[in-house]
Design goal:
alpha/beta, eleven-stranded mixed sheet, single chain, globular
Amino acid sequence: MKVCVDTMGGDHAPQWVIEGAFQAAVGGTSVILVGDEKIIKKTAKKLGGLPSNAEICHASEAIGMGDAPSIAVRRKRDSSIHVGFRLVKEKKAAAFVSAGNSGAVMAAAILILRRIPGIERPAIATLIPTFKGRMVLLDIGANVDCRPVHLSQFAVVGTVFSQNVLHIPFPRVGILSNGEEASKGNIQTREAHRLLSGSFLNYTGYIEGRDVFNGDVDVVVCDGFVGNVVLKLTEGLSRAIFGFIKEGLKGSFSAKIGYLFLRKTFKSLSDKFDYSEYGGGPLLGVDGVCLIAHGSSPPKAIKNAIFHAHELARQGLVERMKNNLEKLRKEEQEFTQA
């Protein structure tokens, strides 16, 4: 079971991407490095040579971080993103990982892998730490404008993802809103609330932003505009808090002594908010496993994204989503007829 990696995508490509892929290969996962063969071989030589379970698949083009996704996907048909998805489509690879242009990755995934039946809009998911563990937040940027049915579909794929990754048998699902009452929210969230209230999912209702980290729900759904703001705010706030703590520890000798006793606690807390521990966000709703990593991903994040993608493919994530979406489709028909 091989994972193909877009070596041309990311702010620090190809060096960091290839380095992370080599770490994953050493860790036991077979990888296919997709990109300019000459550049990959040159970089591999600097890193000590190609691991035995790593191979190269040449792609003559690359889609840049600043390229317009729709134009780049149509014109650059031999890009590392296209070639990688074709390998997955042809069953030559089990999953695809890219830290490149996320819009182009999503567009190419829909074009080549196609959507899972029952999905109109694929969504990008991420794991957020809570007081009780971790929860799934989606969409975090793939769809800034959504219809209610899209949110219900996000709930299904988010539930299956939570079952596979967090090993929660019956994940609790909530819609992110500006209040807990059913009368709150906007037209989009109120209609999605009606759809999910009668579904087979473990839907608990609205959840407010201040309660996201409590751990009372396992899957939080929202449109991509709201989700991306929540994600970026969470990342920025975590950096600010650790910055405040670091500044405070410089204040006195007693603070420095206190840090010696609490440094393991601070390290554990820092790891919870370190996105490189998770690697990337899966694109849920396409007929294949795809992980989109941060553009600035260090080698550690690329390595973990590859491990994560390999595990999702091994667990049969896509097939489970197909089965659950068929259930939702039947319920939507009954809901419409009622």
